[in-house]
Amino acid sequence: MDLAIRASLKGWKFVYLGDVQVKSELPSTFKAFRFQQHRWSCGPANLFRKMLVEIVTNKKVTIWKKFHVIYNFFLVRKIVAHIVTFTFYCIIIPTTIFVPEVHIPKWGCVYIPTIITLLNSVGTPRSFHLLFFWILFENVMSLHRTKATLIGLLEAGRANEWVVTEKLGSAMKMKSANKASARKSFMRMWERLNVPELGVGAFLFSCGWYDVAFGKDNFFIYLFFQSMAFFVVGVGYVG
């Protein structure tokens, strides 16, 4: 992405070939998938922080292209999308249950997100039956992506860390090597636990019960399902 942005700022033009297919491998474990998502979320945010001034002061591209790169490519897709998803659906909506004076209109929390989700799923009709689980899983991953985005923006902690994603093929080789070895290490239970996901799951679950007792908007239906998704990921029962 760094090279692509810099080349674009120098006036290079690219041709997208939609019919070109390449082989790829999936991350071998959920831990590897988390590292991959951290890199994909932290990297663009950190790149935006470093290149913002260079993009604004560049004289080889038009103002419209600068606006597109800053607003559409970086701000909306790489920063705002992650942060808004987590804060709105996992913090704001649950918190409003404790403040009855605050009312979120249904078009804002149900209709518009549903339309956007359906439009995004049009391109993959074969996976339409997984849409409900995909929504819950993406909301869970929004916690990890939000954290990574903030790390990239602030250039803190693991902002410049590069961890190569362990793919399925390499995992199979390691598995066969472990079988040949006399000693086989077992992962401890607490190493599988994801504490932030468990904490958010507990928060959503408590909000759901409070909504059952005192709420009027029936948010508990969503909160219980979403909390279960956080708990499943929190105990490492994924991948």
Automatic annotation (TrEMBL):
The keyword Transmembrane helix applies. GO terms for cellular component: Golgi membrane. One of its GO terms (biological process) is cell wall organization. Keywords: Cell wall biogenesis/degradation, Glycosyltransferase, Golgi apparatus, Membrane, Transferase, Transmembrane, Transmembrane helix. It is found in: Golgi apparatus membrane. Residues 1-91 form the Glycosyltransferase 2-like domain. One of its GO terms (molecular function) is mannan synthase activity. The chain crosses the membrane at residues 79-99, 111-137, 193-213, 219-238. This is Glycosyltransferase 2-like domain-containing protein. The lineage of its organism: Eukaryota, Viridiplantae, Streptophyta, Embryophyta, Tracheophyta.
